[in-house]
């Protein structure tokens, strides 16, 4: 649609032309419980100044219909002013008031005002999600982050509901069976940060207070909400404990009182992402409320997200990037602070292990795509912006900040942050503004650092080269750096040897700067050659680690005996990168997992190993060996499951992995036995979420019937149950199941986001390559229509999710290449997605070659 994809140039021109004074937004959602009602009434009043009286300007709006447009008391013809994406008004005065009345659609895609009906009790729930630019689906506005203004929301809703928004409510008036909430004006914020959550939500309230340095007391009312039917599972105490620990930490470090009044955290259904940092009204995916037993890694992950969003209250909400090029300014910072504050303020002490293992894997993967980009990106328009919420912006950026803290020192870093908040409060910034404060506080020139780390792309690999004399003493230790762009790395090198009980422990640590293609490590000369040389020990820099022959040999025989869990996580990460790069045969990687994963104490690392092992087997192993590999992996998994401590997180993780690997009659019989209660594994509780994992194993192997899955849904007729039943049905190995799943997503836009996701996940089963091979051509044929017709969120899922990634053949690669060369003018964001999938496929083919 013309005008829907706002460009950076348009945004700049508009920021030069107007300054917004205030928004007043009234939403009437009383129709929401009526399934026949598809729209709600939205009335926006914008007051703004114009630098060039007489000029024209547009406001963004994606509405079903516009009923009235009034500029400075003058009624305009809505049909002429509204083109479907913008309302254009001419003849601006110096001071203007624009009123737009529209009918906007309830969303089923998680973009705009999402509507969800709970199958448990029939209750209707609403929430908004806007980033980067979906506030315009709910009210007319200047949809760009640098036109900040105070927002005053008024919401009319069913009287039995509660409504939450960014600010506290000032007045609630009841009229019959409807009620109107009038909220206080917000501080100046960006449009994408506004939020409304409405419905019969269950709420737990609490309070945080803190004495500030000037002796005054800061009071922050806290609330945590979820759907009523999830209330029995809602561990609000734990959530609020982390919340208060975070508020303590950020107040102590940032020295800027939380500026948005109250702090609500709303857990909402069918949410597209982890969470969103709306000031005073943070939204989270409700899967963070655990209906069944989960591992400690899940609690750690949730605490990390709570702290990430809280860091945004300052970095992102109080001070906001000018345009999406500098999205990393907030996301890298929040990602880094999430882990940093977790270690300092909470009981979750594994945060840097998880960071090294998971977040960095995301960054390394993204940074090796042909589509990678510098951390400071070139974001031409909103479609670019949408795709930039990626491993570079979050995880690489956070890795680089972690290194910056090592470089300038913790105190200079936080003092820089404090100045940044005070200097730019309620304003917008670019990269230079952050570098300015950090240079002031550290006394260092960050130009070269910024050029090397923020303004170039790609990941370096560091390899040790060890030369020894006849007695085994090191005569030279060199660190070789490769990559298209060589960078300065501050690293630690760990030298490891076996102690008396066979553990690999660090005997020496050398810290140094690595620059250029070859750096010699003088301090190592004369020492005995250790069993293992671990570069980037302690995970200070951002790089791929390689090994010399001896060290790799040590890991092959003893990876599990590396005593330190961070060092072990780094070793696991390194051998995974070797496998992805075709430098270690996939079967060797699987062998390491089979031999050593059972000893892995860190539950988060273990769960990553499971996912990576499955990927290595299905994508990187020689297809001729795959069946044998499957058998080995499933047998090994069952062995570990039986050996795991009863009732432990490790036991649960292995049980879930068994559900993913089971394929033989014997294993499927055990799975069925666990479901039916005829088989038992001591200490393993087969609760509802585990039951669905087990059903998926049976369904994808053709060992479950539609009737059985319907019966399981009757047992668990919840939102989660419906999603999982949908996935199981789509996973059945029949042509009819595949056709139904494909058609429900590609040929229809009836399904909500959560069920689109479930259908795609069920459709794509690694063990069903022949069954889905016929969808490769239709995939490439549908791409452009899907991109044109669907919301970008749904289109991204379809393009990424249906890519024939298990059809690992040269023929599939040729089809992808043909599509790319035949569609040079397709939307750049669509091309980017296809290029990335194509690159994954080419990588799989190289790895399979290496495994052969
Ligand atoms: Zn974030």
UniProtKB/TrEMBL annotation:
Broad EC category: hydrolase
Keyword Metal-binding on entry: yes
ERAP1-like C-terminal domain span: 532-842
InterPro entries associated with the record: Aminopeptidase_N-like_N, Aminopeptidase_N-like_N_sf, ERAP1-like_C_dom, Pept_M1_aminopeptidase, Peptidase_M1, Peptidase_M1_aminopeptidases, Peptidase_M1_dom, Peptidase_M4/M1_CTD_sf
Aminopeptidase N-like N-terminal domain mapped to chain residues: 28-193
GO-annotated biological processes: peptide catabolic process; proteolysis
Cofactor(s), names only, from the UniProt record: Zn(2+)
Listed name of the protein: Aminopeptidase N
């Amino acid at each position: 649609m013309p005008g829907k994809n706002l460009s950076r140039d348009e945004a700049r021109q508009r920021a030069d032309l107007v300054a917004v004074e205030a928004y007043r937004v009234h939403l009437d959602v009383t129709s929401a419980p009526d399934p026949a009602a598809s729209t709600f009434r939205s009335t926006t009043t914008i007051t703004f100044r114009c630098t060039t009286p007489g000029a024209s300007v547009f406001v963004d709006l994606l509405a079903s219909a516009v009923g009235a447009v009034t500029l400075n008391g003058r009624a305009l013809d809505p049909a002429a002013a509204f083109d479907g994406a913008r309302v254009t008004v001419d003849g601006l005065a110096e001071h203007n008031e624009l009123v737009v009345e529209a009918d906007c659609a309830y969303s089923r895609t998680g973009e705009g005002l999402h509507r969800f009906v709970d199958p448990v009790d029939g209750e209707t729930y609403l929430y908004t999600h806007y980033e980067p630019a979906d506030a315009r689906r709910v009210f007319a506005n200047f949809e760009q982050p640098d036109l900040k203004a105070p927002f005053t929301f008024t919401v009319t809703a069913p009287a039995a509901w509660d409504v939450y928004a960014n600010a506290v409510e000032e007045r609630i008036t009841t009229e019959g069976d409807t009620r109107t909430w009038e909220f206080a004006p917000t501080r100046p914020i960006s449009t994408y940060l506004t939020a409304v959550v409405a419905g019969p939500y269950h709420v737990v309230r609490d309070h945080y207070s803190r004495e500030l340095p000037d002796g005054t007391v800061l009071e922050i009312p806290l609330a945590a909400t979820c759907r009523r039917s999830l209330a029995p599972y809602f561990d609000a105490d734990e959530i609020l404990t982390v919340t208060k620990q975070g508020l303590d930490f950020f107040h102590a470090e940032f020295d800027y009182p939380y500026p948005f009044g109250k702090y609500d955290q709303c857990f909402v259904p069918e949410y597209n992402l982890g969470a969103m940092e709306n000031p005073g009204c943070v939204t989270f995916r409700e899967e963070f409320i655990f209906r069944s037993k989960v591992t400690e890694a899940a609690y750690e992950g949730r605490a990390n997200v709570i702290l990430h969003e809280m860091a945004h209250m300052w970095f992102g909400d109080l001070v906001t990037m000018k345009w999406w090029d500098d999205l990393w300014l907030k996301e890298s910072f929040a990602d880094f602070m999430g882990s940093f504050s977790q270690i300092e303020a909470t009981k979750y002490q594994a945060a840097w292990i998880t960071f090294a293992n998971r977040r960095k894997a995301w960054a390394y993967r993204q940074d090796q795509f042909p589509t990678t980009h510098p951390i400071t990106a070139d974001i031409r328009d909103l479609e670019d912006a949408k795709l930039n919420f990626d491993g570079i912006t979050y995880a690489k950026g956070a890795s680089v900040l972690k290194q910056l803290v090592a470089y300038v020192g913790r105190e200079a870093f936080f003092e820089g942050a404090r100045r940044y908040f005070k200097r730019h409060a309620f304003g917008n910034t670019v990269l230079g503004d952050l570098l300015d404060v950090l240079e002031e506080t550290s006394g260092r020139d960050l130009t070269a650092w910024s050029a090397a780390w923020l303004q170039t792309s790609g990941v370096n690999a560091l390899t040790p080269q060890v030369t020894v004399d006849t007695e085994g003493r090191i005569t030279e230790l060199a660190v070789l750096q490769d990559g298209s762009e060589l960078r300065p790395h501050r690293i630690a090198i760990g030298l490891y040897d076996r102690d008396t009980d066979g553990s690999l422990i660090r005997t020496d640590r050398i810290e140094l700067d690595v620059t250029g293609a070859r750096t010699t490590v003088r301090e190592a000369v004369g020492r005995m050659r250790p069993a293992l040389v671990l570069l980037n020990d302690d995970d200070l820099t951002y790089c791929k680690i390689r090994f010399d022959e001896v060290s790799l040999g040590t890991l092959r025989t003893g990876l599990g005996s590396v005593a330190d869990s961070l060092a072990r996580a780094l070793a696991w990460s390194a051998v995974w990168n070797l496998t992805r790069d075709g430098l270690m045969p996939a079967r060797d990687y699987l062998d390491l997992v089979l031999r050593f994963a059972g000893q892995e104490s860190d539950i988060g690392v273990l769960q990553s190993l499971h996912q990576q092992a499955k990927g290595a087997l299905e994508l990187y192993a020689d297809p001729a060996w795959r069946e044998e590999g499957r058998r080995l992996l499933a047998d090994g998994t069952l062995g570990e499951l039986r050996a795991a401590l009863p009732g432990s997180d490790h036991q649960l993780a292995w049980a879930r992995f068994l559900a993913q690997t089971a394929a033989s009659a014997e294993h499927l019989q055990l799975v069925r036995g666990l479901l039916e209660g005829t088989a038992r594994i001591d200490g393993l509780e087969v609760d509802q979420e585990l039951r669905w994992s087990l059903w998926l194993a049976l369904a994808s192997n053709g060992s479950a019937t539609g009737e059985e899955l319907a019966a399981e849904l009757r047992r668990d007729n919840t939102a989660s149950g419906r999603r999982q039943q949908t996935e199981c049905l789509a996973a059945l190995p029949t042509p009819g199941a595949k056709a139904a799943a494909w058609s429900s997503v590609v040929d229809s836009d009836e399904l909500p986001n959560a069920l689109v996701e479930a259908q795609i996940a069920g459709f794509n089963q690694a063990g069903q390559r022949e069954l889905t091979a016929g969808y490769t051509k239709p995939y490439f044929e549908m791409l452009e229509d899907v991109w044109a017709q669907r919301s970008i969120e749904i289109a991204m899922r379809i393009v990424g999710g249906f890519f024939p990634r298990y059809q690992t053949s040269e023929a599939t690669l040729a089809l992808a290449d043909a599509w790319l060369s035949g569609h040079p003018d397709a939307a750049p964001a669509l091309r980017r997605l296809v290029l990335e999938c194509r690159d994954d496929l080419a990588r799989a083919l190289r790895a399979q070659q290496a495994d052969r």
